[in-house]
Amino acid sequence: MTTVKQSDFQSFAEFYPYYLQEHTNPTCRRLHFIGTLCLFAVLFGVLISGNWWGLLLLPVVGYGFAWVGHFFFEKNRPATFKHPWYSLAGDFVMFKDILTGRIRW
A Pfam family matched by this chain, by name (predicted)? Predict the structure, then answer.
């Protein structure tokens, strides 16, 4: 496996291999998946109920699960701190890749 260094990425395509390298622990990936699934559930609940205050829960459920995965299982620092938008996109792409079987659950 080639190690990708964290640097100033020019595109998401350059960033995503680094993102995956930072998510090799299965428990960390599962926590990301659960957090993203919860994010979609909260968003759905907000849209159905019209209670827009529920949007305040999105970062809590989205990042809460992921950060537990990084700090306690992966033992690294989340990419969110240096690359917030690429990291957010990475969460959604990894979620899709797990759903489609491209990445192991």
Answer: Mpo1-like
Integer Cα distance of 36 and 28 in angstroms:
12
3-state secondary structure the chain: CCCCCCCCCCCHHHHHHHHHHCCCCHHHHHHHHHHHHHHHHHHHHHHHHCCHHHHHHHHHHHHHHHHHHHHHHHCCCCHHHCCHHHHHHHHHHHHHHHHCCCCCC
| pLDDT tens digits in sequence order for the chain, 105 residues long | 556 665 679 999 999 999 999 999 999 999 999 999 999 999 999 999 999 999 999 999 999 999 999 999 999 999 888 999 999 999 999 999 999 999 998
Side-chain half-sphere exposure of 4, counting CA atoms within 13 A: 16
